[in-house]
Design goal:
The protein is elongated and about 70 Å long. The chain has eight helices and ten strands. The strands form three sheets. It has a five-stranded parallel beta sheet, with helices on both faces. The protein has a three-stranded mixed beta sheet with strand order 3-4-7. Strands 9-10 form a two-stranded antiparallel sheet. Helix content is about 35%, strand content about 20%. The chain is of the alpha/beta class and about 250 residues long. The chain folds into two domains: about 150 residues, Alpha/beta knot (3-Layer(aba) Sandwich); about 70 residues, Orthogonal Bundle (Trp Operon Repressor, Chain A). The structure holds adenine. Adenine (ADE) binds next to strand 5. The site of adenine has 13 residues, from strand 5.
Length: about 250
Amino acid sequence: MSENPKDMRREPWRASVLTLFPDAFPGVLEASIIGGAEKSGIWQLETVDIRDFSVNRHRTVDSPPAGGGPGMVLKPDVAAKAIDSVVTDTGRPLIYLTPRGKPLTQQRVRELASGEGLIAFCGRFEGLDERVIEGRQMEEVSIGDFVLAGGEVAAQVMIEACVRLLPGVLGDAQSASEESFEDGLLEYPLYTKPREFEGRAIPEVLLSGDHKKIEQWRRQQSEDITKARRPDMWTAYKNGDDHECD
Ligand code: ADE
């Protein structure tokens, strides 16, 4: 990296994804501002096909769980070889996407975005052999309390959340709105022209030009919505816990 503070060029933020379905990438990461940011060199995506590290001629990657039970387990030797082909430094966390992981939060996203990048391991089948998770000190992350068919979409969610925070990805206007969302409350309702749509009018206060009143109205809406939809966030907000939406 350049030592000149006036020179804004920096190393790209790097996402490496280990997956059995490399065709699922870049997926949504190619679209809009996120895709544009990759083209302009702000970040980089690399995919690694886990199956390339299978040692037998059938390219097998899974076997039945020890102790019995349904489904198949990703073999530790194959997974470990795939991981070791990518993990050449300690600068980037190795994240295993799994519904039993710690829930992803905006706080963790901010930390990941401020680092060098991340390495994402996408699970499939019933899961990955526990000894690889332990041995490679993988951070287990979930994107929500539901079960996907695999970690690919979850990895894209996590990467998109990080990339939009990288310097130069969002314009100034969008960055400001990001801040207002991060005060620990859900967003207030938005309206635009026309004044009336399908018999519904824009709330009068928003057309009043009284910025103080508008701010009060929006804050009240944010509080009411947060109370109703996210009692957990509301309690944290009331207690003055680290005012962040996470
Ligand atoms: N893989 C399957 N479901 C998942 C989830 N909810 N989060 C992360 N990875 C997953």
